Input
Amino acid sequence: MRSTFRRYRRTLRRFWATSLTAELEYQANFLIELLSVGGNLAGSIFLLSLFFANGRSLGGWSWEQALVVLGIYTLLDGITSTLLQPNLSTIVTHVRTGTLDFVLLKPIDSQFWLSARTVSPWGLPGVVLGLALIVVAAARSGATPDLLTVLSAALLLLSSTLILYALWFVLAATSIWFVKVWNATEVLRSALVAGRYPISAYPAALRTFFTVVLPVAFLTTVPAEAILGTGSARWLLASLVVAAAALAFSRWFWGFALRFYTSASS
Output
């Protein structure tokens, strides 16, 4: 087990080193992405401020607390641009061109290869700005997290990332039946925009949908509550269960989808 872990860690390091070397040939892209993310974040903050124009709260959340939710959304969007989109969008290409055959023949887990082969540094501005907004907004809200709160928040952010990964991977894996699913991934990304706001700001029907069907609540609102010190052990446990179930389902679904894959050589 330990040797396997070391082998995968060494492989991941080589994957990311080669992809970063290739990407950093165009260093101006980092500045462009920083300006783009900064502009989008400024627009999101302005839009959020409209809900507080008359000093009102948003679903029981204050201005600073709502900014923590927005910061987590920005952080996850940066992770999507750094890891998820560059890797999982290529599954469609592999299926369409038949190069998935070569991936399946490699002496490494195919889901790992498809999920971690590439890293894009152009999503890092979103990660940095998201973290900065979380820290500043949480401090201004009066939150004084202790070590346990920080660890709980970190665990919930990890759960959010795994849930987001599972959603992207399962959708990308459907390309084995429906080759062109790029539009569907854009629909998913648009739907996840709902995570910019606290889940309690939505009507009851949407709150249920964004908790049970599309787990947006576990992506942003639940980690934000932990950061602000208003979370509960029940939601922490629920988030961990949802993350584990989502990851297990993505694993099962990939094996199921491969049963229907017709290789280029067959």
